[in-house]
Amino acid sequence: MPRVVHLTKYFNLVNDVTRDDVYENVYIGDVLSFAISHIKDGSIWITIQNNVNVIAVATLRDVKAIILTEGVKPDTNMLQKSKQENIPIFTTELSHFETAKLLILQEKEDQNETLL
Hints:
This protein is an alpha/beta fold.
């Protein structure tokens, strides 16, 4: 099972919050009102949204970690609130697609599965 702590192998942890939780899904999206009703509990969230409202949505849906793509950095309020809520935030220069592809490859590697 994929674990949040393993994300540090590929992405930059920017808020010093570490969790060893298993995540079950990945949600990719930037529209907060849509995310509220579509993120499954226990997911990690790939987005470019970098404000405190992301943390509010993440707490509603029990998001295990957030990955900000495209070189986006969290704003100060997002960083502060993520620490209070114990939600790791990672950053990457990769696109949403490249980030998702990397997560899939990592999961396959962890499971010693061959890729198609």
